């Protein structure tokens, strides 16, 4: 009998899991993917859209390829309800049951949580936003640029730092005079990586004349200034922010999330508190055993590693072949500092103390980032 596996959300984590499950299980399972987007962009390439180094069509993967497999079914709609008791999922036009459920719905952007943000701020956190920002940069002739992180947690803890560094270089090369300031509620950059790596990132920012404002939380945005808790404000000519993030509504309504809004899972096997229901990627909250940060940051590299473990374990439980795996919390990411150079961070984020490495910027790590983009697109 064929097992019904339902994968909710087909971003980085869901896509990888659906791909592995359908390959490993063949006719022993039907993999139903629920995802409204037809094409998935690679988020780590979004900064390259901003600076015109990539075209939007070149960083996206078409889900059609996956649906050519006989055991894959794509439902191109939003999930509207997850019913754990009846083991079913509802979309606008369909309702279906699952034997195994994988929730990989990611984190939603919620700009409305900061009044004025949606009207006045650019963001590079979506493909549309990155494309609009690219056009705005072409028309920008200099002045005060404010880059801001509105709330924690947010996806990819290095992304706003990377964007600020690339922006500084881009403006310098274009001979446009700018003053860049970066505000964040975080106490220091990339806190999950610990104080030594944080200091390296702070040094990078100051060496490029970027003013860093930690522990600074935006309360509202007006036409030409951002207002912070305590009443201080920053004037801007161009504002680029990472909007607040939240868990998708359906996840909360299904009772999968805890009070923080995110889904707690067993870090080793990504099981939720409900039988046969797993969650991976940005939608999860995983406590860390060390004091750097209470929860693991939200990163694609984690979603991919978790997808591999869950897919393997579901396939093993169905076929009885192979061995169960455990996720080890390994993560790595690039911090690109210029058009052709990148630094690189990697480590075991779930060990105590975490074992982390910082590799200073070089062309080698930039080429490594290009290679990973190519591999993902292939
Ligand atoms: C600018 C930027 C740069 C980044 N750079 C890096 C990097 O260098 N390295 C790294 O590791 N990470 C990076 N990240 C983070 C990374 O993109 C995310 O952590 C990763 O995408 C998480 O994968 P996921 O599968 O959990 O969620 P996603 O990839 O966000 O996928 C969630 C999917 O669920 C779908 N969905 C949502 N709601 C519903 C619904 N109701 N019904 C059906 N489908 C739904 C969405 O359409 C989406 O396709 C970056 C992110 C950004 C924005």
Q: What does this 3D model show about the protein?
A:
There is one protein chain. A hairpin with a 3-residue loop joins strand 7 (88-91) and strand 8 (95-97). The protein has 2 domains: 3-107 and 247-330, 3-Layer(bba) Sandwich (FAD/NAD(P)-binding domain), CATH 3.50.50.60; 111-242, FAD/NAD(P)-binding domain, CATH 3.50.50. The chain is globular. The chain has helices spanning 12-25, 46-50, 64-67, 117-120, 127-139, 159-173, 194-207, 249-253, 300-319, 363-377; strands at 3-8, 29-34, 39-41, 60-62, 72-75, 79-83, 88-91, 95-97, 100-103, 108-109, 143-149, 178-183, 211-213, 218-221, 225-228, 233-235, 238-242, 245-246, 263-264, 277-279, 284-285, 330-338, 341-348, 355-362. The model has no long low-confidence stretch (mean pLDDT 96). With 378 residues, it is an alpha/beta fold. The strands form 8 sheets. It has a 5-stranded parallel sheet with strand order 5-2-1-9-20, covered by helices on one side. It has a 4-stranded parallel sheet with strand order 13-12-11-17. A 3-stranded antiparallel sheet has the order 6-7-8. The chain has 10 helices and 24 strands. Flavin-adenine dinucleotide binds next to helix 1, helix 9 and strand 22.
Low-confidence spans: none
Number of DSSP-assigned strands: 24
Bound molecules: flavin-adenine dinucleotide
CATH topology type of the largest domain: FAD/NAD(P)-binding domain
Q: Given the C-alpha coordinates, what overall shape results?
A: globular
């Amino acid at each position: 009998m064929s097992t019904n596996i339902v994968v909710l959300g087909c971003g980085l984590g869901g896509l990888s899991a659906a791909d592995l499950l359908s390959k490993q299980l063949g006719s022993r399972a039907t993999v139903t993917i629920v995802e409204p987007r037809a094409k998935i962009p690679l988020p780590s390439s979004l900064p390259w859209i901003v600076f015109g180094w990539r075209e939007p069509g070149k960083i996206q993967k078409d889900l059609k390829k996956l649906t050519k497999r006989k055991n894959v079914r794509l439902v191109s709609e939003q999930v509207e309800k997850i019913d754990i008791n009846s083991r079913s999922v509802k979309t606008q036009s369909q309702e279906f049951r699952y034997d195994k459920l994988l929730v990989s719905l990611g984190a939603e952007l919620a700009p409305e949580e900061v009044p004025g943000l949606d009207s006045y701020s650019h963001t590079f956190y979506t493909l549309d936003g990155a494309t609009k920002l690219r056009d705005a940069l072409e028309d920008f002739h200099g002045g005060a640029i404010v880059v801001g992180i509105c709330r924690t947690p947010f996806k990819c803890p290095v992304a706003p730092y990377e964007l600020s560094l690339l922006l500084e270089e881009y403006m310098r090369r274009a001979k446009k005079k700018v003053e860049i300031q970066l505000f964040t509620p975080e106490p220091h950059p990339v806190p999950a990586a610990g104080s030594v790596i944080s200091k390296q990132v702070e040094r990078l920012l100051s060496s490029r004349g970027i003013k860093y404002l930690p522990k600074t939380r935006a309360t509202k945005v007006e036409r030409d200034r951002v207002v912070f808790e305590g009443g201080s404000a920053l004037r801007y000519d161009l504002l680029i922010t990472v909007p607040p993030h939240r868990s998708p509504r359906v996840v909360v309504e299904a009772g999968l999330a805890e009070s923080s809004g995110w889904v707690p899972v067993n870090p080793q096997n990504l099981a939720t508190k409900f039988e046969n229901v797993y969650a991976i990627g940005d939608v999860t909250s995983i406590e860390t055993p060390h004091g750097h940060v209470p929860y693991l940051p939200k990163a694609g590299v984690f979603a991919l590693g978790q997808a591999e473990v869950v897919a393997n374990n579901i396939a093993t439980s169905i076929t009885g072949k192979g061995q169960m795996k455990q996720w080890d919390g390994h993560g790595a990411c690039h911090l690109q500092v210029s058009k052709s150079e990148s630094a690189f961070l990697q480590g075991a984020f779930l060990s105590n103390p975490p074992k982390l490495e910082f590799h200073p910027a070089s062309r080698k790590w930039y080429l490594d980032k290009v290679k990973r983009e190519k591999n993902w697109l292939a």
